[in-house]
Amino acid sequence: MAFTTSKLFSTFLLLDIFISLSMHSTSAARNPLPKTNTDFIKTSCTVTSYPKLCFTSLSAHANAIQASPQLLAGTALNVTLSSAKSTSNLMVLLSRSQGINPREVAAMKDCIEELSDSVDELGKSINEMGQLKGTNFNLVINDIQTWVSAALTDESTCTDGFAGKSMNGNLKITVKDRIVNVAQLTSNALALINKFALIHG
Ligand SMILES: *[C@@H]1O[C@H](CO)[C@@H](O)[C@H](O)[C@H]1NC(C)=O
């Protein structure tokens, strides 16, 4: 008797788990295929040099990206541009702050200029992504690849400026980490664009 009761109990327990699991999958089903979409991002990110950053920066947009290599590359560009803009704004603020010596200000200004170039290049690339309609695909994607590469070069030049001893510890760490992040996002976006170009072409 005791055996039967406990068996019955565990059956109910299993049933309960089953019901709560299926309720979970029902609520998940309201967003179309979220698991599949994040899987697509994860798989696509393996072609990048910074796959973890690639996934964390793009997974929030999984539902918009779905399984489109073009939307994935476009979103990567947009995420990169907004990060480049906010880093640039931060640097402008920091360069005006008290207690920064002239050498630091000079290094910051060079970097702000390079970041500003990279913001322009990323912006042009994003505009061109909107023009990708088939007829001039190779021409347009080539321009985009060129601009994003140029943006990456500008950001790297900026990071190199921090390699010297012209900056104090805290300022250097704050700014450098941000720029490295922008450069890594740019590198990832370029890899996703190259992959998209290959698939399409
Ligand atoms: C990227 O941003 C542009 C400009 O805001 C927008 O038109 C475009 O739809 C965005 N691309 C993606 C893939 O979200």
UniProtKB/TrEMBL annotation:
Specify the superkingdom: Eukaryota
Sample GO molecular function, one term:
pectinesterase inhibitor activity
Q: Which Pfam families match?
A: PMEI
Matching entries from Gene3D superfamilies are given as: Invertase/pectin methylesterase inhibitor family protein
Q: Which InterPro entries match?
A: Invertase/methylesterase_inhib (IPR035513), Pectinesterase_inhib_dom (IPR006501), PME_Inhibitor (IPR051955)
Cleaved signal peptide residues: 1-28
Record key words, sorted: Signal
Q: Which CDD domains match?
A: PMEI-like_3 (cd15798)
Annotated Pectinesterase inhibitor domain residues? 36-192
By sequence similarity, the record places it as follows: Belongs to the PMEI family.
Provide the protein name: Pectinesterase inhibitor domain-containing protein
Q: Which organism is it from?
A: Ziziphus jujuba var. spinosa
